Amino acid sequence: MNKRFTRSELGAKTKLELRHIARDCGVEFDNGTQGSELIERILQAQQQQQATVEVKAQPAGMARQGIDALDDDEEEDDDDVQGEKKITVQCGAASLDVIAAGQTVAQLREQLREALNIGQAFVPRVNGLTANANSVLSPGDSLEFVKPSGDKAARSR
Amino acid sequence: MKLDIVIVGAGGVGSALAPMLGRYCQYLPPVFDEIVVTVADGDNYEEGNAPRQLFGRFGNKAEVTTEALLEEFPRVRFVPFPEYVTPDNVDMLIGEGAIVFSAVDNHTTRKLLDKHVGTLQDATLVNGGNDYTDGNVQVYARRGGRDTTLSLCQVHEETANPADKSPHEMGCEERARASAPQLFFANQTVATLMSWVFYLLTTDDTFARRPSIGEFYFDMVAGRVNPIARNASAEEKE
């Protein structure tokens, strides 16, 4: 994606133009997708691309922290250099690999807040240990924002 | 070899889990010569439970659940414990070697179970919970008097410092107010993930000694299940 659009710029586009932009961003849509929904999806895609040089969604059940996650084929497919720089970020059932070494926990929390639905009270853990907001991440680290347990109640978190 | 299983809570999750464990245990190899499943719950089945729970009659959930399963799976000794779990009775319910499934809907009881298991030499606590379409299952294992995975309270603030009450501390009206709409399928998913843990505990010696999965998260809408390790380490000891 070469150009980043603001919400107002997108709001001035026709639906056809929005679809072209969405396609360029890799946003999925169908004939029934409303313009307002296209705008939200485009903004979200732009935000994710800004947050990480590379953000690669992991398949379900491929978490890190001691669990042997990637199979051999996928490891071979990864770019060697970028693979070494990746940090796995998890929140609940969601998991992302990001290139973010040198950033702090607080920075990643803010950048991935919407993409991973990270709540304010979610406690960070790095490589399985409690971390604070100023902890600096290194290549290969695993960062988790611990999502509270399900409690069968519709309490706000 | 004895299998001592305790299911705390026979609501949407516990009542789904009990028959799964019953069927599986009924056909376990003969090496398990005594299989006891205790079901604890002080609540009663009533009409409002029908959308998510299968029961043959109204009455205490622990009693109704165990009497039905006793007939269906005679090799397994199902024992009712028709009370809420409290600090006064938790040690009667959960002893050394137990595999405890916590299927309750409040953090106060989870904390009680977590702390009690933490006093035992060998025991496993498998806690499950869900919101409407997502949830999680946690595994806390004690082996030889040491934690091999992190306790619930070490990882989850909301359990370590519960803002809710145990049902034995609430009146009927308060209990009714505390309940929230739930999805049958979410309950079933929690029960299924708990059964995965049970399968690994009874078939994989390495997992049984030190569970490699400390928590599962699932999200039905995203179509994901995410396993996370929770290895106990020196830095986490209290």
UniProtKB/TrEMBL annotation, chain A:
Positions with biased composition (Acidic residues): 69-81
Region (Disordered), start-end ranges: 54-81, 137-157
Organism domain of life: Bacteria
Name this polypeptide is given: Rho termination factor N-terminal domain-containing protein
Organism: Candidatus Uhrbacteria bacterium RIFOXYB2_FULL_57_15
Automatic annotation (TrEMBL), chain B:
Signal peptide interval: none
THIF-type NAD/FAD binding fold domain boundaries: 3-158
Superkingdom classification of source: Bacteria
GO molecular function, one term: ubiquitin-like modifier activating enzyme activity
InterPro entries named in the record: ThiF_NAD_FAD-bd, Ubiquitin-activating_enz
Protein name: THIF-type NAD/FAD binding fold domain-containing protein
Organism the protein comes from: Candidatus Uhrbacteria bacterium RIFOXYB2_FULL_57_15
